[in-house]
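Feature request, filed as a ticket because there's no other form

It would be nice if the structure record came with a short human-readable summary line next to the tokens. Right now we just get the raw output. Example of a typical job, pasted below so the devs can see what we mean:
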Amino acid sequence: MDDVVVVGAGPTGLALAAGLRTVGVRVLDRAAGPAVTSRALGLQPRGVEVLDRLGALGDLPDRSLPIEEVVVVADGAPVARLDLRRPTALVRRPGLILSQVEVEAALRRRLEELGGTITWGWELAGLDRDDRGVTLVSATGERVRAAWVVGADGAHSRVRALAGIGFPGVPVAEGFVLADVHAVLPAPRTAVTTFLRGDEMLALFPLPGDGLWRLLATRAPGDHAGREPGRDEVVATLLSGLERVAGLPPDAVRDVAWASSFRIHRRLASSYRSGRVLLAGDAAHVHSPFGGQGMNTGLGDAENLAWKLAAVVHGRARPDLLDTYGAERRPVAAEVLRSTGGMTRVMVGGSASARLVRDRVVVPVMNRPAVQRRIKDASSQLRLSYRRGPLGAGRSLRTPRSGDRVPDRPCRRADGTPTRLYGELGGRWVLLDADAAALRTARARLGADAVVALTGGSDTPPTPGLVRPDGHLACRPDGLDAWLARTLGVPAEAPHTPIDERATLAR
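Raw output as currently delivered:
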């Protein structure tokens, strides 16, 4: 029996499997092989940090396209420019523009380094649960047994449906069409440009590659008679919109690499856990793509769930710890649904008066420096904190509080070797600037190989305490024993399954 089966080999499922490097994990996916096209095309700073901690970031920053600004053009006139070059006090590292396909490839390479594998062409048809585990049944009758199952199988999740978890929601807007094209466009390849004209919208996203662009446009309510358009219809709609909405020549498009359509829905799973079955990523939440939050939210789900599930599998924590996964991550998804839904309504517009307010008031406000800082901080997901969740610090006056994100920083190992905080995480805990007694306590509770002791660099302010594998502060040293006892719910002498040496050496 496998410790964990992850259904879905997209970014969320792959990140979860890589984070579960110390347990027996299997990844199943119904597709015949890796995806070669994708709608998602960006990593926010939080997503970059997750890949960094997992050891999967690699050369993605070098292969991405640097974007310096976001430009909004209404009726042919620029009305807002969001400068992405200036860092804020929170956002020091920029997001990345690159295809989800590239992110998945990087995660697959990391999973392979850790000894993990993916079984392609495995379509889930049945899910039988009992007190000791879950049996998954494929469409061909093959049976797989696991102690825990995580559905990371997308918006139409079969795991969610078979587990009987509700997925309420509503449509947010009419449909959209998109395509990746090779084109010579009179538009800067250092900017994402959104054109607004009346109730129509068309956006240009430069992509890494020779003259490669992503075109995204709204579909009129009556377009294609309520059905999903074919490839030729999608291309025709985009080329027409390129001229009508953006005022750009359609013949600038040399060829079309890929085209698709989609409709925006806003849905949130009623629960992230049903017994031994859990949900993550689009299986738990879907929302508007405006703001580029989808893939990044799924990566955050994966990292949060991985350390908790590993602790339970190793017998270091009671299964109740898994309830804190939904308690911490579901509010994050709810806020993403709210913010991206609001952004969609603003950008797409409704009535003529609403579009007038959009073009003359709402969008121009983006030019203000304070508003730009707020937009960049919010979209980065770096402001996220779990301090109000079940593992947080409540009303503590000291900052950072339990549940707050701890930024990456230079540190030193016990032998004086320089390192980085995030370079030591990724499935492990870090005890920062604490004494030997605190280290003994942490290792007794979490496992000798699961806790790394570091000291902060002389040029960074100290943040003494235990840092969770997902980069959030667990607790201060003086509250270590109490926090671990409350969080894990098992005595210090709980059994421990040794960490796979191959996974450790692969770092």
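Something like this underneath would help us a lot:
Confidence is low (pLDDT under 50) at residues 494-507.
The two ends are 27 Å apart (CA to CA).
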